[in-house]
Design brief:
492 residues; alpha/beta; 10 strands; globular; 16 helices; Rossmann fold
Length: 492
Amino acid sequence: MLALSISFLVVASILLTLFVIISFTFVGLFLSELGLWFSWIPLAFIIASIPFLILSSVEYPRIDFFLLLVGALLNLISYFRLMAPFYRVNITNRRLRKAMRRSFGDDYLTYIDPALKSSVVKKVRFRLSHYFSGIHYKRLEECVTTVDDVTYKEVENETLKLNVYSPKKEGKYPIIIYIHGGGWMRGSKDRFLELRILKRLAYMGFVVFNIDYRLAPIPNLATFQEIPHDNPTIREMVSDVRASILYVTKNALKYKGDTNSLFLFGRSAGAHLALLTAFSCEDKFFDMEGIECSIHDFDISGVIAFYPATDLVELNEFYEDEGSPVFKQSLYRSTGTTIEESRNLYEIFSPISYVTEENLERIPPVFLAAGSKDRIFDVYQSEELNEELQKLGLTSVLLEFPWANHAFDAVINGPGGQLVFQYLSQFLAWTITRSRLKEIEVIAIKHGLGEVLAMEKLNIIRNLRKGKTKDDITSSMQKQVSTRDHQKEIKD
């Protein structure tokens, strides 16, 4: 019985290490989202130990009972840690819903372009059945067209390419340019892990351009102490992202894209590049043919940033406090220097540096998502940026998941994955509609029709999609205002 008790205790300790201690580190990236698949293991050992606990309390020395009890308690901790996201998902969802309403208004889902309503999740909730059924990848393949390896830039004997995912149904769809993560040193547009996410967005009614960009070199044992200065840095990466935007805007119609609605979407280091591209003030750059272009040649409708780096100075301090020399390498190599050598460069490469009064017009709406247990890019990075944006009256929302680690959304049907993509659909539809309503407002004010109501503007947007001209739209507005005034007179 003593040997059995010790075995139970050893197994419980191993499970505690795997499911609790490791889950708080970067090694356990997806564990919180996959918890329900593993929760049966500690639960089974708890149930198995109950008969022996009863026996040991009566027939055997107390040491056996004590060891079995400690083992059962350790298994109980492991079980509740694995199940925490599922116990907290409804409470978290209510908090996230309040965050969306604070940022976009209580009625933010009232006025949505009719053409987008089919892709908007009106009532966000976690569905346990979806967690087990998984994503229907075959259905995505049937409804999405894929075009691989399209060249968008050639630089320094390197060819940069992108993949395109678009709805098979004919139409003109909003554009999302996706920038992969990987600590500025790894990653590729061809990673299968992200295909499900991007093809799901295409299935929802977006044209997704999944880009590669130049990467900083990965250190090895011989170069770990060296900081290379002549390799691609964040500056070149942002230049590549801008070149991809220019290519997309010039070739959007070929892939059913609507350049009036163009979003940047990045995860991790890709989220940092998306924010920096949208926020920074470097106006001039060169396209694929070497022609000088301006950042004003295109308009970014919004930025989607999942667990981004926003302040590299603070991030460097976080890695020092955590004792993370490996992660600091990603900062050294992506900036081409250390903070001691060039603190100014770390600030230039930090998106938060551009959140200023002078830069208000440049910054589009921002959708942030992060996990409180993130040990790669501290959640404070997202919290700080969101606070600064809202302080200046800019449109921004942060969805923070208390159980989640870095890259939690890779498990797309997990608790965090389900919620974040449902709220993302709302953000995209709200942002696109707001942009189109502003376009109508400009026309209305120009013709002295500023009193056109929001619902009437949505009807005008519907007419726009039917190929009506601006003169037709003006006439339609005049008619709607006249009809409304006439009805008001009759009522009075």
